[in-house]
Amino acid sequence: MRTEQLEYIAAVTRLGSLRRAAEELRLSQPALSETVRNLERELGVDLLERKRSGATMSAEGRELLPYIVHVLEAVDRLREAAGEQHRISRMVRVGTVNAATVPLLVPTVREFRAAHPVTQVEVVGAQQTEIHRALSEGGFDLGLVNHLDGDDVPAGFESTRLLCGRPVVCVRPDSPLASRPAVTVDELLAEPLIAMRSGYVMHRYVHRLLDGRAPSFSYSTDGAEMGKLMVAEGLGATVLPDFSVAGDPLERLGTITYRPIEGDATRVLLMLQRRKAESVPRAAQDLYEVFVRRARELGGTLSDR
User: Given this model, what pLDDT does residue 305 score?
Assistant: First the structure.
């Protein structure tokens, strides 16, 4: 008998449906049904009554349910005694400013999913201040944010530098700027500029780069992904960290490209952050470690800070 079997029975009882329980647990319905049947055979009792309208506990199952709950609570207490703050999480929430989505975030989530098939990963796009607030309040387990080199790291967070890049101008391949080895500020000012909204690090960087001068025309958007789509549709150019553009599906398809900014040596850091705590849920810790390992494989991990 495995504790997972008891957790599955508890989920079916709570949700009243094998289908809904399978969706919540991220299992196929046949796999869940077979697991429950194996437990029933082991106990010699039909725990569920299966009907067209759903699955409910049988009379025998209702008699055993208090014992099932007692076992699960005992397992929770054992895990707490072993140093875990809670039982192994069924969801890890990651807040991100949408930087390095393709080269880092997507492979990381894919690797984590293979090792944690029943743990859901929820990726939420947000501004840096919103990510910090949610980390502090426990709404996010991890946060991916950009920092300009030299920025102070907020107190109360553990921060690991994952990737180090430089700002680049993202344009369509048929843009005149794509024919340049590097783009000057004057050339950028002559183009329609797709800027990040206030609250994003790249908004602050571009404001500093232009030094009070205004582009010929500007848009304002929320996050790198929408900025790249607008570039691909020919609305203008945007400025992003190179690790946000290199390897992006649009870049691989040849609909966007990027060029460095002439004379600029600014570094942009992709940081992985979490709230400082004595105990961290195992799933969140495992995902944190996969992020760090993947970044190291990309050659971008720097020392912890």
Answer: 36
